[in-house]
Batch of 2 targets.
Target 1
Amino acid sequence: MEVIELYFDKILYTVIAFVLLIILRTNTIKVIKRVATKWERFPTRTALIKKFINYLYGFLLFIALFIIWGVQLQSLNVFLSSIFAVIGVAFFAQWSILSNITSGVIMFFTFPYKIGDFIKIHEGDDSIYGHIEDIRSFQVIIKSLDGEIITFPNSMMLQRGVSILDEANIERIKKDLLQKKETSENDNIL
């Protein structure tokens, strides 16, 4: 009983931190579900964003518990600095992974395209046409008009111009691409 009286404030703050975390997490998940429903996002993408949110809130709870239970800020600063240094070196070595994950989260909330859309990625003379098959953590899977599966990094999707094309244009685009291909082959023969 003495232990409870001695640590009552810390136990109370810990319970408050857990309750706040649960309320924040629940409300955030509701917002994510609303966005996913409104913009017709697939359940796998929604689950991925929920996982990222759970990691974020878990990290925040971890820090709150450190502060509540009296880990001195100096010790916490050294601990966090060490962790961020290791994470920073790892992410610097693999910056594209972090960039693609961040782009995947951004695309969830702002990307106007969805799975099944017929798109054109503007790459000059080498534009990519195809249907979006899947949008994953690191890349978008596109099935080209000739059936080729193309993986395109999320970060590149945000950096390139992308157009949604009408399904009625597929045959016209196929003809244009075939004509360009034949013209370039004829030029190579000459």
Target 2
Amino acid sequence: MIDAIEKFLYRFDWCLSRLSAITVLATMIMVVFDVFCRYVFGKPLPWVYDLVSIYVINLILYFMASEVLRAGSHIELDLDLRLLPPQVWGALQALAWVAVGVALALTTWVAVEAMFESFAKSEVHPGLYEWPVWIEKGVVALGLGLLVLRIFVRCCHYVHKRLDASVFQSSDHVAAAVAAADVK
């Protein structure tokens, strides 16, 4: 079951990371075109700033969060506590990941509720263009939800591998799970 969730996450994260990369490229093109129109024609594109600041930044940040954790590309404080036995250090890491997972799960819940409330009220950002707020909140909720699922899977791997803390440092178990699932 955990391997199936891991495989789903791996593929979903792969798709979202590609979408984020394409979004970054499209954003660069839009900003360059906006600057060109502003200084050459004296007519900037008024929607570019709103689109980038409201949607694009959140999309790039939250859609990549789970993938970054899987790949181990995030900024992390590496404490080398040689005085602690490896089992104790692993248990402390597991406890920390569970705490982070619970906090992010609560945040995800609030984001989902806010998204549905925003959709029901038809909230929009004020300005020249009325951008729907629920899309922005939905992007945050989806990204956080995937990150919570990734943390849950990581903690399940920790228990499944008999309290082996190496699952917190490496994404090798992900590649093995996906490879095993592809063989079946």
